[in-house]
Amino acid sequence: MKKKSRISSVAAPVVSFLLIFFIWEMACVVNEIPAWFLPKPTEIFKSMVVDFPEFWPHILVTLEVVLIGFLIAIPVGLTIATLVTSSPLLNAAMSPYITFLVTTPLISLIPLLMLMMGYGLNMRITTVVIQSFAVINMNACTGFNNVPVIRKELMQSMGASPVKTFVKMTLPSAATDIFTGLRLAAIFATTTCISVEYSAGNTGLGSQIIKYSQYLKTTQSFACIFYVTIIGLIMYSLISIAQKKIVSWKE
Amino acid sequence: MANKVFSVKEISKSFGSEKNGNYMEVIKNISMDIYEKEFIVILGNSGCGKSTYLKILGGIESATTGSMELNGENIGACIPPEKLKKFGFVFQNNNLLPWRTAEGNLRIMLKIMKLKGEQWEKRIDEMLEIVGLLDYKKVYPHELSGGMKQRVGIARALVHDPDILILDQPLGALDAITRKMLSYELLNIWKKTQKTIVMVTNNVDEAILLANRIFVLSNKPAVITHEIEVDIPVEERNTMIGQNARYNELREQINNIIRATR
Q1: Domain covering A41-246: architecture
Q2: Which of A156, A169, A250 is nearest residue B97 as measured by Cβ atoms?
Q3: Tens digit of pLDDT for each residue in B31-88?
Q4: Cβ-based burial of B17 (10 A; exposed 0-12, middle 13-18, buried ≥19)
């Protein structure tokens, strides 16, 4: 039974994936839709392979910005969350700004950041950090604030220091919420990076999507979009795997 | 009587302030001398402040006024961190850390109290053996039943070899059958470990089965209304205790007191 369900959990998405692309392909062929309007999936996949040397440097740029930004956002978000939740006063003073950062569409800040920092990697990474640290921070704050009082009492009854209490009890108690934040942040990081590339500079997958669609090379444009999707998926699944490895217990 | 291990002198605890109109006195002038190897049970209705009192004894809260004395040394209104090693606290709903195995839940106690070495590693096994869970040492809490979790909780409170074991309604969250079985087991643990025990409960039968002395608390603010000596010899405390004449006498007496408690 278990084996059967595992097979179907792998087979079902593969079948639906193939089915959707088949319908798309057939729709293009039957209706004779021109490639500049909507390319056939087979052409997009072909372009992903054939034009790969052309895409590769841009894939690297996007990957670099997303990964560096995300990796900086994790310690920043967690540190701020730790500080903020350690005192009720700080918590009250800071929480509106965290909410502002999460709810303000970062795209609106991009022209300003461009003005201050130019088009380079620094500006892109900064934008990604600002956007993704806020989500990590918000979810970590939820996790830290929801630590059961009775567990704090347990640590008190043992005479644990604040640092030990944090490492041995608070962090694991909040782990599930922290991972929720990380997963959202990974998505935010990719989205933000592409948005920045749309408007700043001529490197990165985002800039290529714009460039190809301006030349009506919709097939190449789609190929770049698919590469963005792949980057997002890889980030998402890496975090899910890490969560399964680290948070292996049930509450 | 044996040595006085711990004594509580006129402890009171209140929350809030009169100025804000949320002042509440929870416990009032409680004094109590606890002797070595004694089993003290504190009985009271729910919400009377008995858990608050126990948290003061366990170093989780500090008293508003009053002081405590441990082995003749005055330690003030709050147990200082370095003295916490002398106490082991058992929580009402086991309070195990779900990411640690049974063994790991005991080990964290030793780690935080900085007790290292072969003899303490061995003690983890010994304590799990005493509560009958040595075979489950690698098992995570979610795989254990409620009674088993609470037994791990008791083993954890014993692993650092404290002088005084403090139990906050340790059987309160269990079903009736498990509760009964575990109360006999507590008796055995007390006999085997020879610890001084202070336990809070709202169950009269449990109190008489286990206690040397029972303190009955009034409702808020809690004061001690009665102190009852349970003079049933340890040998006669077993599953047959229900047929003991003295047991039934005490039971009637205490039930009357509880009923009259306001």
Answers
A1: Orthogonal Bundle (1.10)
A2: A169
A3: 899 998 899 999 888 777 888 888 998 888 888 888 888 888 888 888 888 888 889 9
A4: exposed
